[in-house]
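Backbone-to-sequence.
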C-alpha cells in the first residue's frame, strides 16, 4: 500500500435502483424497494473507492466488518449516492463511516472496515479450500 489512508478521505458510489436491486418479496401490495444486501454492496464499493489510489499492483481489499442501519425505503428508478469517509487507519485495516441518500432523504448510516490484502496470498488460501478437481 502506498502510504496510509488519511482520515477524512472520501469515497463515493452512485447508482439508480433497478429491478435487480429490489427485495424479492415485493408482491401482495409490498412495493418494489431497494433491498439491504444490494445497498451494502454499494456502500462497500464507496469505501473501496476511497482507498483504490493507495493500492499497489497485486493488492485489493476485502470487507471484514459492517454495521448498517437501513432507515428508509427507496423505489425503483431513484438515484442513490453512497459516501464513505475514512475515520481510522491501522496499517492495512481501514475504518469508515458511511451514509447513503436518495433524492429525498438519508436512507442509511453505518460503519465499515476494509482490510488491504495481497491477492496472490488470498488466492492461495482460497485454493486450499477448493475441492480437488475444481482448481
Amino acid at each position: 500500500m502506498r502510504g496510509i489512508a488519511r482520515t477524512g478521505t472520501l469515497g463515493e458510489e452512485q447508482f439508480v435502483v433497478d429491478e435487480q436491486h429490489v427485495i424479492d418479496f415485493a408482491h401482495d401490495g409490498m412495493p418494489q424497494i431497494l433491498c439491504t444486501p444490494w445497498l451494502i454492496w454499494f456502500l462497500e464499493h464507496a469505501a473501496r473507492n476511497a482507498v483504490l489510489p493507495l493500492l499497489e499492483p497485486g493488492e485489493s481489499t476485502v470487507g471484514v466488518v459492517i454495521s448498517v442501519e437501513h432507515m428508509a425505503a427507496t423505489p425503483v428508478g431513484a438515484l442513490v449516492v453512497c459516501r464513505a469517509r475514512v475515520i481510522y487507519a491501522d496499517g492495512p485495516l481501514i475504518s469508515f463511516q458511511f451514509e447513503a441518500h436518495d433524492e429525498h432523504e438519508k436512507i442509511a448510516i453505518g460503519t465499515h472496515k476494509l482490510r488491504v490484502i495481497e491477492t496472490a496470498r488470498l488466492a492461495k488460501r482460497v485454493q486450499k479450500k477448493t475441492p480437488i478437481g475444481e482448481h
